Every structure is written in structure tokens, then in C-alpha cells.
Amino acid sequence: MIGDRAKERGREWAGRFLPPPVLGKLPERLSGLSDDSRTVGPGTLFILRCGSTYNEQHLREAVDRGAALLLVPEIHLSSVARRLGEWGCDIPVCATPHIQEASGIIASAWWDFPSRTLSIVGVTGTNGKTTSSFLTREILEAAGKRTGLIGTVWFDLGDGMVEAPQTTPGALFLQESFARGRENGLSAISMEVSSHALDQERVAGTHFSAVHFTNLTRDHLDYHKTFEDYFLAKSRLVLWTNPDGSQPGAVVNGDDPYGKRLLASLRGSGRMVLSYGHDPSFDIHPGTVRISLDGIEGTIRLPGGEMRISSSLPGDFNLQNIMGSIGCAL
Predict the structure, then answer these.
(1) What is the pTM of this model?
(2) Are 311 and 318 spatial neighbours (Cβ–Cβ below 8 Å)?
(3) Lower CB count within 10 Å: N or C terminus of the chain?
(4) Which residues have C-beta within 8 Å of that of residue 261, sequence separation ≥ 6?
(5) How does 103-126 read in b/e, with b if 16+ C-beta sit within 10 Å?
(6) Number of domains making up the chain
(7) 221 pLDDT band (50/70/90 cuts)?
(8) Which domain holds residue 23?
């Protein structure tokens, strides 16, 4: 349970982190933050997350449940204002042109920017995200960093494993999860970041310490219009710029054709980049390695040294996962 201090904000906070109201005045007090009308209570800041259309029933439910302030997309401002007038509501309204991105940034501010004080490692790619996020967590734990997990199957925010709601949670829930991990004494979180989450700005407002690209194969074309769109969505994490303008270190699988493309685009960017793969020219590559049904044994060559590995995970694909995860922990 997150402490009560971060659960209530005043007018000064709203004036600092929200767009100026276009209808009414900012309320004296905000008691909560939600983009789900079912969880709105008296005093809540309700964010109307939507696309080209919005559900009026959700808006009405938020109003009826006591929302104190609305943040809506600019494209729907006139429609929302008209509905509020028809319903006889005088709730103040703020508007933004980028509701998805604004949601994450505002949620981060609501919870006192938790990812600034945590080492957040984001893993993206078609295959290997789950294994790599677990491996990264184990490596960081072995190095003495108490590390949480936000994954496809499991969450661990420092108070035990629970089933994950989705690959990458919504922007508001994600920032609250970071805050919960911080309060539980975590110093790092290893997390999977899906292409859907990147396209929908669910990680907006997050300060990443490292980002990891595993590979890209044909998938999710039911969501992304083309394979190029899928690649561009994934690449957003690798090319990430943090809210303060800093850039996380990037760890990229150079054996993958799209990883090679990303490495070429990162060349000369000024950010720290670690490549990994089988070619000795990569920053992280195998030394003497034996792969069998019993697992992987051998040495991994790193910038300035060598590391001995012993894993029960079989297969060359897991050797790649191990190399990438080591890179994230460097």
C-alpha cells in the first residue's frame, strides 16, 4: 500500500503539472488520479484517454462519481464542453493535444517521479523479452541491487510475485507500480516493454537507465499496419530520451538484421551503446562456450574483461539472452 502523502495534491501541484484550465478554475484539492471511470471518486482528476472518438458513458460516469477535474484531448474539447453544459455540470476542464503522452508524464509527477530514483531496465523485441527480463533481474540481484520485475506473466514490486495484468501496464498503473516498488525498498526494476505499449505511450514519463533490443520477427501485424511500423514502434525504446533529456544506455543484438539497423542509427549519437552477438567485433561476444541439452557453460568476452557463465538454459538463443542481460547490468 502506497503511503497517503502521494495520494492527494493541491492547486499548486495542478498549476505546475497540468495545462491551464480552459473551463473553470483548478480545484483546491485533488484526491486521486484515474483514467478508468469505474475507479473515480470524489476529488479525482479524471483523464479521458481515447483516440478519435470517446465513450460518453465513461465521461458521464466519471462526472457522476465525483471527478473534480477533467483532462481531455483537445480534439474532443468542444464535444466534452457541450455535454457538460447539457448535464448541468461545472467541472473544470484542462485540455492537451497529446493525451496518451500527457497521462504518463502527469502520473509520474503525481507519484513524485519514481523512475528517477530507480534503475529501470526496459527490454523489447519479438522473442526473448521474458527470459531477458528475468535474467537481468537475477544478475542485478546477484550484484546486490534489490530488483523488481514487470513482465508478461509476473509482477514483483518487492512484495512477492503476482500475475501480470498485461505485457506493459497502462501509463497510470505503471507509474504507481514504480512508486510502490520504490516504497518497498527496490533499487531497480527489470521490465518488458511491448510494441503496443510504445505505440500507445504507456511508458511516457519513464526514466530508463538501460534499454535492450533482443530481435525482431514477424508478429503483431494484426495491430501494426506494416512490418516497418512494427520495427519503428520497437525502435522507440532503443532511441529513448528520458524526460530530463538524458539518454539510457542501449544494448542491442547485433546478430539480428534489425539490430544491425539500430546499431547503425545509434552510431555517433553520443549515447552509450553495447552490441552483442557471435561476431568478435561486438562489445559482448562468446569466448569459449559449450551449449548442450544440459545448458550453457563457458566464457563471455566483455569490454575490458571476461566473465565465466554457467546456465541450465539450453540453446543458442538463450546464449544471446544471457549476453544481452549481462550488457544491461554493466
Answers:
(1) 0.94
(2) yes
(3) N
(4) 231
(5) bbbbbbbbbebbbeebbbbbbbbb
(6) 2
(7) low
(8) 4-97
State the Cα–Cα distance between residues 189 and 147, nearest whole angstrom.
5
Residue 196 neighbours by CB under 8 Å, 6+ apart: 167, 168, 202, 220, 223, 233
Residue 219 near residue 190 (C-beta atoms within 8 A): no
In this structure, are residues 72 and 99 in contact, taking their beta carbons and an 8 Å threshold? yes
Establish if 28 belongs to a structural domain: yes
pLDDT on residue 4: 42
Rg (CA), the chain: 22
First to last CA, the chain: 32
Determine which helix (DSSP H) or strand (DSSP E) holds 109, and give its type and residue range. helix 99-110
Asked if 162 and 86 sit in the same domain, the reply is no
CA separation for the pair 202, 192 (Å, rounded) = 12
Q: How confident is the model at residue 59 (pLDDT cuts 50, 70, 90)?
A: very high
What is the pLDDT confidence band of residue 81, given thresholds at 50, 70 and 90? very high
What letter represents residue 192's amino acid?
Answer: E
